[in-house]
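Project standup — Tuesday

K.O.: blocked on the structure for the chain from last sprint. Re-posting the sequence here as requested.
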Amino acid sequence: MNKVIIAPDSFKGALTAKEAAGIIAEEISGVFPLCEIIKMPIADGGEGSVDVILSAVGGNVYSAKVQSPDNRQIDASFGIADNNAAILEMAQSSGITKQLGLHPMTANTYGFGQLIKAALDRDAREFILCIGGSASTDGGCGMAAALGVKFHDAQGNSFIPCGETLNEISDIDISGIDKRIAGSSFTVMCDVDNPLFGTNGAAYIYGPQKGANPEQVKTLDKGLRHYGALLEEHYGRSFVTIPGSGAAGGLGAGCMAYLGAKLKRGIDAILELYDFKKQRENADLIITGEGKLDSQSFQGKVLSGVIREAGDVPVWSICGVCDIDPGLLRGYSIEVFETSEGITAEESIREPAKYLRIAARKATKEMI
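H.V.: unblocked you, prediction finished:
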């Protein structure tokens, strides 16, 4: 082995992408001391994206007081890169882990709008928005409200819509939106390509993960249909079928509408920052990894992007658990090593560094 690229995602709740890359690199360098090892901690727009981007381009982390999805005051961090671009993780302000319990019908993205304002106040005018890990299905209405957009019901009353009240919106007034937004550019790093509503939309696919029961899912989907029609009426264009419009409970559509944002696959944006195509030249192997390897790994996640950009370089994955048909893996010529091999997934999570090291050691032996 002369050159190996190590490009893992985070092992969510267990190891950061940077920690995982470091452990794998140590095992390889122990066996191949002369091997050039390039560590590329990866994120796809979800947890850890700020740290990954700042590690690639340089910058600093700041903090702001914002509203949580369940209306408490919390601290949320965001990054300002050396080129003054703002990198914001929606999960820091409005993520599913930022609330007490699950609130699928009432959770909101108001705090994310406050985070955008905090970055605007630091004179950022270029934004990279990472929107994975959402708690809500409010279509970005909370974010918009924090930025000055007003929503009215049929009686003309102003209110801030959430998932269960999207269907009550009668009018959207953007005249009061923060004027600085017009002079800013927004790129959304999105790790899914779901439409706004329908059986593959935000409510049906992700509502249950946020605690919604079947009846609540139907209510949320109905609200998103109504909301999508209002956005089309107001802006003169449809956002609902654009891949990623249903990301983060419809926040993808909200970012396109209110911020003029462009949606981009998160993994593609990160690989561009690393100049991945150039870095892979003359590489013998690319090792990626994540907590769970499943069908979604091939749908806009880290593995899918790495495979697409790997060229002729073999790709291996070190993961916590693999839940993919072996035939599919063979079709992609991917070799997989599980940290949970021979033990339970729960045990591997309790000591993630130990078992990742063991799996990396097994992978290294296969290189010899």
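K.O.: great, moving the ticket to review. The chain has two domains: 3-40+277-367, 49-267. The domain at 49-267 is CATH 3.90.1510.10 (Glycerate kinase, domain 2).
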